[in-house]
Amino acid sequence: MSAGSLPRPDRTTPPSTGDGVNPVPVHIAMIMDGNGRWARARRLPVAAGHRQGAESVQQCVRTAIRQGVRYLTLYAFSSENWRRSAEEVGDLTSLLRFYLRHKINELHSQGVRLRIIGEPERFEGSLREELRRAEALTLNNTTLTLTLALSYGGRADIVQAARRLAEEAAAGRISAENISEDMLDEALQTGDMPDPDLVIRTSGECRLSNFLLWQSAYAELVFMDVLWPDFGEAEFLEALSRFAGRQRRFGGRPV
Asked: Gene3D superfamilies in the record, alphabetically (predicted)?
């Protein structure tokens, strides 16, 4: 499900102010890692970790709204997650279906717009329809855009964008020599969203794992040792505090 035809915002938050303090990030992207380890440490089934992780998502949405964040993008299911056991994939999709049915009205009342990027067509038909209905219900909300990356891979996103531009060039609608970074930006599934200012990953792992690879070129990266089910408001605010202390120059000199 691609982005709607909204006016395209600025790609990034402005650089740090002269006092070295960043504004609140416009767009935060999160790699939610550690559900399985959280469950195993408690001798619980992995599904219990995913359920507790879903509670963390709700806390993050509420905190993001209170802090004035405008875009929150969550790596909910990577294209590589299909390699997991059929039981775990089933648990994840069942949990997604539960929250679409029982929590979407709460998100709607909070002014949250739900968007999906990735390959949702890989999920079975009834779940795709529930995703479509949730997107349609919340389409005009403006408080926070919550994007779920489902069956998403950053490399595949770049490839499909390049393919779209190649098709346009082959049809004579654009010139290959004039293809620019901005054009590729717009061809990505996130083309009408600003790039993430801050990428947070939990569980102590320090890698992007094929998430928003192009879009995160100038993002600040914060890696936290907490497992995702234990991530709450305090951890969210800690990540914002780390972001505030960074000096963002986008390749330029300090002011």
From this structure: Decaprenyl diphosphate synthase-like
pLDDT at 5 over 50: no
DSSP the chain: -----PPPPPSSPPPPPTTSPPPPPSEEEEE---HHHHHHHTT--HHHHHHHHHHHHHHHHHHHHHHT--EEEEEEEEGGGGGS-HHHHHHHHHHHHHHHHHTHHHHHHTTEEEEEEE-GGGS-HHHHHHHHHHHHHTTT--SEEEEEEEEE-HHHHHHHHHHHHHHHHHTTSS-GGG--HHHHHHHSTTTTSPPPSEEEE-TT--S-TTSSTTTTTT-EEEE-SS-GGG--HHHHHHHHHHHHT----TTS---
Among residues 10, 19, 81, 140, the one annotated as catalytic is 81
Q: Structural domain boundaries of the chain? A: 27-132+148-244
Given the residues 10, 19, 22, 33, the one annotated as active site: 33
Q: Is 157 a catalytic site residue?
A: no
Percent of the chain whose pLDDT exceeds 70: 89
Q: Does 220 show up as a binding residue in the annotation?
A: yes
208 labelled binding-site residue: yes
pLDDT (tens digit, 9 = 90+) per residue, 205-240? 999 999 999 999 999 999 999 999 999 999 999 999
pLDDT for position 252? 63
33 included as an active-site residue: yes
Rounded to an integer, the average pLDDT of 246-255 is 68
Q: Is 82 annotated as a binding residue?
A: yes
